[in-house]
Amino acid sequence: MIHPLQAVLTTNDGNLVFCVVENNILVFRVGHSGGGDFTLVGRWTDDADKSALIKEKVLKEHSKQVAENNAKRQKTGEAIVSHVKVPKVPQPGKGAPAFYSMIRGLTLSSDELLLFACTDSDKSVITLGIDLQNPTDCLKFLKRQSLPKRPNAISLTSEESIVLVADKFGDVYRVSVDPNVPAVKESEIEPILGHVSLLTDVAYATDKHGRKYVITADRDEHIRVSHYPQCYIIDNMLFGHKTFVTSLCLPQWNPRLLLSGGGDAFICVWDWKEGQLLDSFDFSSLLRPHLNSSHLAPEKFQNEKGDLVEFTVAQIKTFRELNLVVFSIEQSNCIFVCQLDGASGKLAHLQTVKLPSHVIALDCSQSDTFCVTMDSRKSEDNFAEFYTYNNGLFRKSVGKTDAFNKCIVESVVSQNLTVETEEGIYPLYQLKCLRKRGEH
């Protein structure tokens, strides 16, 4: 069984496609023939040994406790213990949940020569160099910066060597990704701002005067606008969501606007600097024909009729120049396309793109094309599709899609990245777990 593509990212010209498969980043290059043929040109595997990190922490804590105990014995005149049995490193017991070395937040530098990502294995941000002159592997590992808590969102800043990273503990860190600057100990990294809830997304923004801001979203329906780098100064709180927020998006062609979505049945459009809600676009009627059994609320929280549905906005994306917004719903098989009025901030539905299986990841880095990856467990020849804007609508690029899927099959098999059973597939749908229940 071929593992679905968990994340996707393309360069602005579309010549490179980056995909995440399990704990691997694969890079595909489109051919110059115009037929859309693809070639695997790079692979990086996150092989960090988590057990070694756990052992190091256990031994460090053990040494600290021994030193404290000996200090107490010295004060009371007791004999100092020199030989102490080294503790065993804790191992997951029978029935413990599986650990997955997730790779999240694929992001390219502005010159597209560096690739950044967040890793679960050792709670790090990694920097990979991209060298297309290397005939065997265009990805080169350059740096790994460990963080105190697991990162789950990343954003570029105007400083080429700095990224902002949000973690699941509610903090945002300013992290150097410059390969020439050595990584520092995780204990030396201080957060620049914090929420009291799990952070779900982070974005860097500037206003018309060039002032810098950090926009953060969390599980408690909050969106905060903070000054940067003086993040202790809160400029605005954007209130409009009724439940958790999962995705923030600043259109490149109109950075005055901010789009947000999450566990609600609507997309919010904000003038984030003024703190004004410009539109609340309700998509529930558009989504209703595409709902399935996976959207039913858990039995414990279901209503008497058994028809209570819950859904989550997975990703909101915009294009560099087109005034269009595309967004996906977790575990649904469609992409919604809306037109965004730059002056009023109003959204209007333009198109619904129906797909053969559930959407996993979405990318709109190209000027007029989006790429979507899908849950391929039921159809092992349809991993991703490309859609290009033409005459007012997005249409499937059949040749490019077929060539890419063919290359995926050949590459994954040749790279020995297949899984034997569905139990070996990484979790694909995790956002719905953010929804708070009565016991919270």
Structure description:
There is one protein chain. By secondary structure, the chain is mainly beta. It has a single domain, classed as Methylamine Dehydrogenase, Chain H, CATH 2.130.10. Helices cover about 10% and strands about 40% of the residues. It has 3 helices and 28 strands. A 4-stranded antiparallel β-sheet has the order 1-2-3-4, covered by helices on one side. Strands 5-6-7-8 form a 4-stranded antiparallel β-sheet, with no helix packed on it. Strands 9-10-11-12 form a 4-stranded antiparallel β-sheet, with no helix packed on it. A hairpin with a 3-residue loop joins strand 10 and strand 11. The longest helix is centred in the N-terminal third of the chain and has 27 residues. It starts with 6 loop residues before the first strand and ends in a 26-residue tail after the last helix. The mean pLDDT is about 90. One of its GO terms (cellular component) is cytosol. This is LAMI_0H17568g1_1. InterPro entries: Trm82, WD40/YVTN_repeat-like_dom_sf, WD40_repeat_dom_sf, WD40_rpt. Pathway: tRNA modification; N(7)-methylguanine-tRNA biosynthesis. Required for the formation of N(7)-methylguanine at position 46 (m7G46) in tRNA. In the complex, it is required to stabilize and induce conformational changes of the catalytic subunit.
Number of strands: 28
CATH superfamily: YVTN repeat-like/Quinoprotein amine dehydrogenase
Helix content: 10-25%
- Measured by DSSP, the beta-strand proportion falls in 35-45%
Average pLDDT taken over every residue: 91
